[in-house]
Amino acid sequence: MTNIFGRDFSDLDGIFKRPETLNSFARQKMLELNYILKDSHIYNCPPACKHCCYGSILMSYTEFSAITLYLQENWSPEQVRELMTQQVGLAKDDGMLLCPFLHTEAKREHCSIYPVRPLICRVFGTTAAPCEEEIVPMPLADELFHLGYRLLYYSGNRFIALNLNAELALFEAPFALWCLADNSETDRRFLCNYLENNGDSLRAVLFDRIRNVFFSLHQGERILLSGKYTSERNDGDEKQFLRRGRGQYGSENRCNRYF
Question: Where are the domains of the chain?
């Protein structure tokens, strides 16, 4: 196993210095998510299974914020340093990114951030790897998932993203990419260089601020995305366009929104 970014993440203390207004926003959204899913026991997975914990597990900036808060409030500084030094950015030999919060040796409860795990881990597992055993999920109403998705990825009619530079913003990404995007201008440049040089966004979803489109990178090609990734929202007969702007929860480079 290797760190695909070739760097130590332990110096990224900026991710733990988020404005309190944004911390409050993240806490409230996760509380609301817990409430709407409280009666939905979606998967009956075997306790020892961790197959879905491999691959680029995507999350919103809201979920990333909630996770970093959880680490601050529940982990010791030594535990956080070990996580950032040894786990974040780690990949298997085939390049498959690992979830840094996976307890591989545990016989039960492999997730070390289970109370604030991302939405995708709560309702679908991940598409990174199929189940080794046949698992029959309980039905989840589409509207319930979409409600949870909008809670985390949007504020009103505006989607939540972080500006990387004048052209790009990060909308949905694995934990390691959010760390780089959220920490400092230097680390945002590092991330942009990584994306350009490797031509792979590790399934992360980017937003082109100039062309107003969502896309991911794979094998050096931009893959345009549609469906849930849209810069338009239809409400009845009225079409509302999301336009570039500054967010209300922080500085120009932290939690920028498009409205």
Answer: 2-153, 156-258
Q: CA-CA distance, 209 to 169, in Å (whole number)?
A: 7
Residue 129: name the closest of 51, 43, 46 by CA: 51
Distance of CA 78 to the CA centre of its chain: 24
- Indicate the pTM of the whole model: 0.82
Q: Which residue has the higher pLDDT, 95 or 212?
A: 212
Give 213's strand partners.
208
> According to the model, what pLDDT value does residue 75 have?
96
List the structure tokens of 225.
């995305």
Work out whether strand 158-160 and strand 154-155 pair parallel, antiparallel, or are unpaired. antiparallel
In order, the DSSP letters of 24-50 are HHHHHHHHHHHHHTTT-------TT--
The answer to whether residue 253 scores a pLDDT higher than 90 is: no
Of 173, 137, 197, 152, nearest to 36 by C-alpha is 152
65 C-beta neighbours (distance < 10 Å), count? 27
Is the confidence at residue 228, as pLDDT, over 60?
no
Sign of CA dihedral 113, 118, 120, 123: positive
More confident residue, 250 or 10: 10
